[in-house]
## 1
Amino acid sequence: MKEYILCKYGEIALKGLNKSSFESVLTKNIKRRLSGIGNFSVTRAQSTIYVEPLDDSCDMDEAVERLKKVFGIAKLTKALEVEKSMEAILCDSMDYLAEAFEGYSTFKVNAKRADKKFPFKSPEICAELGHKILEQFPGMRVDVHEPDVTVTVEIRERHAFINALKIDGAGGIPVGTGGRGLLLLSGGIDSPVAGYMIAKRGVVVQAVHFEAPPYTSERARLKVEKLVSEIAEYCGDVVFHCVPFTRIQECIRDKCPEELFTIIMRRLMFEIAQRIADKEDLACVITGESLGQVASQTMYAMVCTDAACRMPVLRPCIGMDKAEIVEISRKIGTFETSIEPYEDCCTVFTPKHPKTRPVLDDVVKAQDSFDFEPLIAEAVENTEVKVIKKFV
Ligand code: ATP
Ligand code: MG
């Protein structure tokens, strides 16, 4: 008798020929995420991944917490492996079910037989276990329509599995199956959410942050690194690039029209991001922009920034309200860090009246009046890179 964790896929189950490569990436991600909390074996069978503790050092509760953040898992559950006999199913499952029933009052039993040779049919298994539960747990009633807890008995090849604790997984598809991208990460609320959303669609995310010391502080940088480690719970280890942006900002301030400051700054951010993306073999840039949120996020402003970018710009928050973005940031645990009050380079030298309808030609002309190339090259050259891990 042994406790396992079963992970059920969501969308991967729908993949045809590619399914096994998705499964193998997911298995690898799970193994990586469990490192440091015990010796686990991770195997797959019948669209389920079995996480088996190999010794007493395994922290099963921490394993569940970590697996809840692995993309590609739709549901997970602790499950009990018992001997494949009716007797064992009835007797050995009671302690496990006592935990599952805590705080609940109704249940139903579901049985699935992968092994059709098992001498009891599904309805018999349900009836027998149902009776036993009613006997043992006087507080529980049967409700076949809307039970609080569904107890599932699966008769597999070698063992029977009993599970009752269905936990929602992170959904999405496994990180590493959808290419690689570069997240423009500020210290705000939106960009960590954007990174989470794109990683959820299978993309390996690296992050780039532009800082402007001494206008921005060391603590602002530490805050961003903290955000990176928070999204790393979902994304896996994140390569983090920190670009010194002060000289470029000062030059835009000194050489370009004030009302175009923000838009030119953003174009230069994209230019630098692309060079980093090229070096790191990343295929897109990702931002937390949301249409109409601020002057630099009008459609016209985006036309001007996109013109500076050869790569696709993914903006997963584009159609979301701030309240919806906040809701996700609370859910993934970045909100409290995002609202720490440190300055971002974007708030340095911001014009009082930024253009909400910039015209691309004017912007390009203004930008071309000064040769930014040496400064861009210098910023890329002096970018600091480090890998930020959530788990060792
Ligand atoms: P956020 O909440 O993500 O900071 P925001 O609503 O404050 O977004 P802006 O400051 O206009 O909006 O930034 C828009 C996007 O540009 C951000 O979501 C982020 O992707 C990128 N960005 C802004 N500032 C920086 C920065 N200092 N470093 C890297 N990317 C940045
Ligand atoms: Mg911001």
## 2
Amino acid sequence: MHPILARAQELKDSTVGWRRDLHKHPELGFQEVRTAAMVASELQRLGYRVQQGVGKTGVVGTLKGKKPGPCILLRFDMDALPIQEDTGAEYASITSGVMHACGHDGHVAVGLTVANLLVEQVDSIQGTIKLVFQPAEEGLGGAAAMINDGVLQNPRPNAALGLHLWNGEPVGWAAITAGPFMASADIFNVKISGKGGHGALPQNTADPLLAGAMVVNALQSVVSRNVSPLQSAVISVTQFQGGTSFNIIPDEVALSGTVRTFETELHELVLQRMRAVIEGVSASLGCQAKIEVIELTPAVVNAVEVVEAVQMAAFSIEPGIVLDSTHRSTASEDMSLFLQAVPGCFFFVGSGQKDPAKRFGHHHPKFDIDEDALPLAAAIMTQAALSMLEKLTGEQ
Ligand code: NI
């Protein structure tokens, strides 16, 4: 067994202890006060230089090697979700309506384990390691807040790594993909206004509800007719509100949803076609549409040279690993903001229960991970950071 994996296995009790403690005490985005205090105290114990309050509740731990050299940023997210837990686990959330249903409790535990593993290598490290414990990943802007607070300066990282435990696959699987890996995420809000009136006298109205229904249908033509079958995009209408009574045609209806794409050009094409369809269909029925698009996060795009180093690290830690180098997900991640600024790699480590019947997806009330994933994830991350430092030192 690789010595770093062997050491991660020795630390497993602590790793699982941190993870279960965090799971029991989940905190929503920008409220990770208890979590941040736990992270800061462990990093201080290990001798890291610790900065707290970076991006409100974020924590940064810096470790300088014995010799100067490049800087690697490792990012772990900390926030929970507004979900009522239904796992029945002994370490289930004691906070009503809040749950670690995405595995970020595991990410923090992996991050603290990596912090321990790296300290033990400090004599051989040339350069600086920056451990970034990020708040508010779940659509609340935690990465942007940390970047605004200067997490990418003093020193500026030369590469960035991040990981997500992934319940879609069991322990022993990893996805480390070059190029676009996770999709961009936009929110769209549409208001369609017409002319309301009596439900029995539709000839005197311009019915926004009918226009809205046709818009929902017609939007599905964008992906099927405008996007190449060899590329991918998602348009999902997830909210449709309008009307107050069975005999009243309303003045206005509202639609909302999300758009996911992997490439900038396609992103622009999809938004342009959506506007044309929404406005055109509404106008053809005597209604007007107002469209608002909120660009939440860009796509996660991995740099080839960093991906190669992480893939090699995964194989050296676990030669039997099932490596998927083409996997992509239409979910989104604000790790993308770090990767826009710094070349890097965000990857998935399988954490699904061995029994597929007990495997629940991310953001589900019964979501839970196979904790065997934790030492493996920590060892791969540690080895990847050390190899990247070595690679960059060679290039300097
Ligand atoms: Ni997540």
## 3
Amino acid sequence: MCGIMGYVGSRSAPQVLLEGLKRLEYRGYDSAGIALFLDQHFVLKKSEGRLENVERLFQSESKRLEKATCGIGHTRWATHGKPTTQNAHPHQTGHVVLVHNGIIENYLEIKRDLLSRGHRPNSETDSELFGFLVLESMGSGKSLEAAVRESFAKIRGQCSVVVMSEREPGVVVGVRNGSPLVVARDPQGGVFFASDAQPLLPFSQDVIFLDHGDLAIATDQSLRIVDLQSGEVVHRESSHLEWSLEQIDKAGFPHYMLKEIHEQPGALIDTLNGLVDRDGFEPFTLADQPGVALLRQAKELVLVACGTSWHAALLGKYWLESWAKIPVSVDLASEFRYRNPVIRPGTLVVGISQSGETADTLAVLRDMRSRNIPCLGISNVRRSSISRDTDAVFYTSAGPEIGVAATKTFLAQVLTLLVIAGFLSREHKTLSSAELSRLFEDVIRLPHVLAEGLEHDSEMMKKIEETVNQLTLNGDAASAVKGFFFMGRGYSFPIALEGALKLKEIAYDHAEGYAAGELKHGPIAMLDAAMVAVVLAPRDAWREKTGSNLEEVKARGAKVVGVGESADDQLSHLCDFWIPLPVESRKLDPALLPFLLAPVVQLLSYRRAVLKGTDVDKPRNLAKSVTVE
Ligand code: F6R
């Protein structure tokens, strides 16, 4: 999604803005630009494509431009209008310049009015129109701050903007009205703006997450925050971020995604420690937090999410139903929101979103809350928008995830759902204390088992590499792989869906995830020697049946990659490739095997993407947080 940076102070603005925008690249974008205030005028540098193109535009006059100490920058993810230089932000309208993140829903109406008053927009964007509104308002004598407030009253939609005017040199005004906006005081004097906290970390660890409806007015000497509607000053506490710069660097890995896959054992430990009361004697005791009361009252759960988070929800359903015996339905937020679902009394709606900013998920939660239905969130980002639209949030502690493809945040969400299932099983007395204690001991061991599997010389890692190398590098065009089927049953089914999604998003391969038992109802017709079937067959309650499905795909000539236990001679001999999990199931409850299967499918996709030479951390057409519908 779009990224915003802004700065006013004593540092060189182009350096601050470019450094910040680079740290926002992970969100996904298709064009970028910067506006600097210099010698009483704005200088704009914009380009389609990568940020490097903008950097190049600076080169010939870098000495002069570096003197600028005030400016705004943007990375754009096209919504209204193609990803061209002309549509790239910042947009200048007369003496006003702005960057915008989100959508102006009534833009057609506004455009019609502006055209009828003789204005001629230069771009196809909704964003530029806001500049005309500010220009008109300042034309009638209003200050920049008052003009932004007046203009905001005319638009509908969730968005944030940062605006400057040549008439008020050295003033930067930012509004959060839905899409996140963060400000931080520069210890050297001045203020930073950003759409995300992490680009501010090199400059300050104390940041202020603006609230919905806040307007911040910054100069090199001051920062004031007022309520967008009333104009009255509001006080916002700053938050001290514990994320270190090291945490958001690649730490020697070639890609953030690989680093984040390897960080999963730590993400599991931190998430567990954040959720459960480890001092208590009972297993699965949730640390005292507001969400606990909501869970206790719930008679039924509805889990809503998108993409990878939806896969986490599908997995959570297995534990919640089989352990806690609570009815659970799982829905895609984009479907649920337009379907008029029937919600019975006693239902708790749980929105799962690693970013906490996904438009469809937030819309469902807002709608449910307006109907007085209790809502719980699960998110990795503290103070993200989901906290506004729910009664309580369980935060995962996976740390910042920079790779666009979700990996460690997925496992952290899955663990949170498992812990909730354990907690409810104890509350509902559906599992005995002995069963719960045994499961909890295994949960505590799980990160260590996973860490062993992720050691670079483990059998699991070696086989993943060998398998992908052979599938990708060997053979001529005639034997090239045309597509992948990921299949599994029970707990492995959501992981099959996740494996197919990962491969599509970063390696651009055609891939499908299937419940193994469904294959014979149609898709098996597609199988031939050019197809790869990745069969998830750990030694669990479904292994026998999955084994039969494995034989079916083998008989159709597909290349078979099996994933299961190292000692499973029977299945491994049927497969072209066999990837062993780092533990035998009798040493870990089979319900926890998805935590080991997920990194395998992530790594298969990662390795394939690297060999195909795609942009692993910033795959085409994708964004880290999808703040539009
Ligand atoms: C896939 C991926 C997406 C997200 C989806 C929801 O790797 O990252 O499918 O899972 O856009 O995002 P959140 O969890 O932020 O709501």
## 4
Amino acid sequence: MKPASEDCSVTTQPPPQTGSAAGSVRTLPLDLPAFLTREQHRIHLVGVAGSGMSGIAALLLELGHTVSGSDKVSTTETDRLQRLGLRFHEQHRPEDASPADVIVFSSAIKSDNPILGSARDAGKSIVRRAEALAAIMRSKRGIVIAGMHGKTTTSAMTAHVLREGGLHPSHYVGAEIPILGTNAHWDPRGEYFVAEGDESDGTIALFHPEHTLILNIEEEHLDFYADLDAIEKVFAQLIAQTAGKIFYNVDDENAARLCRSFTRGISYGFGETADYRAVDIQLKDFASTFRVNHRGQDLGEATLNVPGQHNIHNALGVIALASELGIAFEKIAKSLAKFEHARRRFEIKYDSPRFLLVDDYGHHPTEIRATLKTARSVGRKRVLTMFQPHRYSRTKALRKEFGRAFDDAHRVVVTDVYASNEAPIPGVTGQMIADEIVAHGHPGVSYEPRLEWVHRAVGNVLESGDLVLSLGAGNIHDQLSALAADLVIAEKLKDIVGEDGEVCLYEPLSKHTTLRVGGPAQFWVEPRNEKAFAELIRFCRDENLPLFVMGRGSNLLVRDGGIRGAVVHPCGGDFDKIEINGVEITAGAGAKLKEVAYAGKAARIGGLEWLEGIPGTVGGGLRMNAGAMGAQTFENVVLVRYLDANGEAHTKTRDELEVYYRNFPLLEKNFAVSAVFRGAPAPLEEIVRKLEASQEKRRTSQPAARSAGCIFKNPDACSAGKLVDELGLKNLSVGKARVSEVHGNFIVNDGGATAAEMLELIEKIKATARAKRGIELETEVQIVGEPG
Ligand code: EPU
């Protein structure tokens, strides 16, 4: 092993200084290119899990070094590298790095990192990631792909085309590229090294490539650069250090201005002045075709299987470069047609006739506009976007541009900022971006600060024909994946309930309960007939998906976190049917009990008038043996039809059923389909009188405000309402939940109450009844779901 020696020449120039660890870096005199590519050493990488660092680790392993690395997280990438020989440590401990001759560190690592500290004390060579990359590149004929947008795609495309062209290039790109196999690869057979240059911290000025490809230049990374001038200076240095040709996008104003005067410049673009020009462009859903013209000469047609006009520009740059390297156009065109996208670049996560879910890494306004333009051109009905701003500094600096970037989205849900390695800036949140988009005049914007709820906000407004796009460089794609996973199930549920039925994702149950509280149902499903209901039961059983059946939600308190699994609401179709046969009324589980009472009136069937006062459905009334006016459901029910846990239908007569006060155990694990109610012939006047008595009783003794009916079962000795009244608890409130002043057994929602408030109030009442009367109140209202 050759130690770093004094007589080796220094070939790296001092890296530009940043606010992180750079201030403390010492680069010892060292022929770094030879050290890294012609010798074999022990090298430790600090922050090895980062996307750029893992590429360096892969190259160093392929170059035969003994490589160790540390990071506070392990990733699938570090797992893969471990299989290739990386010694990985999930902590930054100096002793793990002490055998190393050189330390390479990521720009995300702070200067007080213990490994950097101890390496400094030991006088070791410490190099930045970009320095290591620049040094590795110097031992080959370097090709740098630079620019603000499209670097990863274009560098991957370049490596792919050169590889197919038989040039055996080595490569280093910023993301996992399926078609290349890995994000970095050292090929000893080839002369070229293709690398994505990172302009974010000025380190592209470290490169001395043979050729440079400049995609575009604009204001970005304003945490590091003062302005566009400062950015252009760094690009100008890269250009000056390029020995061969400069390929540049002539349609990008800044790139063109900077490169035009350069004698070895080769331009590409759509305009007539371009050396390599695309004509006859045809944009399709996920592809495009165009002809390529080189200084007036037609080279042939190219097909690109990655969408968007911006990718035609990227491909033109690659065509220009590969042509100048001597690869025949036919060969270039053939390999371009095979090129697949990098991960997180318009990556299709879910595709069905009803929905298309796409993830994109776009986090700069220009990228967002380009991606949304592509999304629009796909031709789906609407484009719904979930956006996670990336870095506080960018959010603040480009907020106006972000405000104008979403014109092509029908709906935008913005979540909070992904910090990356930045500390928060006071007042800078996702709300700032949402406000800017609104101020720009966009009608469909909302802010959801909780990242884990973003998929719900988008999923709940989803309609057949929509394209959903997740945008951002942080972890917003997890939300798209969560939506995709639920959509797989939702689509199967939709197939079960058919065209007539309804399936919604994340339906707020506050819309479906009389109390108007409750979080969302993961899957809200409305079957219209017994067959679909039975099939749903079997599907949920087979998929291990929780199933909860809900009627009108009149005796229900759903917690704020909502209900996981399928919430089945049998309604419409067969479930709303009411049929009269003599003195018997057959009613579907979704029919309202009130309607049964009125059907009785129409057919002169008495004895059912009390049902007028029950706000629920037949299914709900059966489930809890609801009662009013001294009567209860099973005094009138003579037959129940239900589905068992396997979806099999059964019919039972009243004498076969076990029924208790506010409790019908059969429906704890089975599901009501319909019931037959029996009354007795009665004169109309008598029926009307009883109906009016019931209405009068409700009007005078019960609140009209939003409630779930009686909250507690009546204890043996007394009425719960009377008890609460006597305890002086009327009007007691928690937040917007309040004990009704009309009836002590009702809790009313004064507007916007939460389930948590309701539950706290219930507990207070129970505690008082226990303490003062020794009575254990039992809730009659059904409490379900997850805490918020
Ligand atoms: N009372 C008070 N103060 C109050 C409430 C009631 O003094 O704040 C007295 C009443 O004056 C009456 C007695 O308590 O003397 C019983 O009250 P009520 O007649 O209203 O009957 P309840 O037992 O409280 C039951 C059902 C109601 C149903 C009514 C009317 C239960 C738990 N409640 O109420 O059902 O509407 O009878 O028939 O069985 C429901 O189940 O959700 C429901 C509202």
